[in-house]
ABC transporter permease (Mediterraneibacter hominis), 312 residues
Amino acid sequence: MAVYTMKRITVGMISLFVLVTVTFFLTRMMPGSPFEDGNVSASVTEAMEEEYGLRDSPVKQYRTYMTNLLKGRLGVSYKQQGVTVESIIGNAAPVTASLGAAAVITAAVAGTGLGVWRAVSKKKTVRILLSGGTLLGAGIPNFVAALLLLLVFGVTLKWFPVTGLFTPAHYVLPVLSLSFYPTAVVAEMIYNTFAEEMKKEYVVLARAKGMGFWQIAVFHVLKNAWIPVLNYLGPLSAFLLTGSFAVESIFNIPGLGREFVSSVMNRDYTLIMGLTIFMGSVVIGVNLFTDLLCAWLDPRVRNSYLEKRWGD
């Protein structure tokens, strides 16, 4: 496991380096200048570019940026004068993280419940309704769900507030918007794996020993059925914890997603780079944690790592 962990960390570092490099040169290929404004003359724009080193060659700018990055400095925002990229991320990340964590928990709990209900229900009508609901949920993009929820429950019925994240009530609509699709996916995965696990020999043996149905389902079957779900929740958590651009923009939530959209529109190179590095690091870290957690929970995964190690 130690060898595997080191390999994954190395691959993650290389992936992050490639991501930073590609993003850096793509930002320099964007048309226009971060300091272009209808009220600013061309001479002032050139002077600002000279001040921030944007008149240098892209290769020289890249070397300067990577040197500062290795020193732990992400730079200052070009549009928010005097504000560091670190402070912008520090203010936006907790907002997005709280929203993403709530959506992940909602999807995991609701999806597991719906999947088990569909698997154990003996009523055909219930199974058909749950199956149809799963297909419907998986087919609705989060921005469409956000608009529908906003119009129905926010504007028409006025049950929930529609902007910001100030109270628990503000979380309801954006969390539901983000969790529609993952809930449907988790429900389908749990249904398939739960039904398959219930047919295995260890379940028959547990029943022969006199264990109750729900005892077997909760303490044995569900544990194994959740392994594929964990593999899915890893990338999902990374995505939701780093921001959903559309949902944050629709509900005017001051999170990472809105900051990233704003930075691209304003050609704020340093903020684009800082957000990319932060989001890339979170994605790599969460995926690594998920893989190690799956290996800890499932002996078969640990054994496969050992076989690969000895095979090397």
User: Anything to note?
Assistant: The radius of gyration is 24 Å. DSSP finds 13 helices and no strands in the chain.
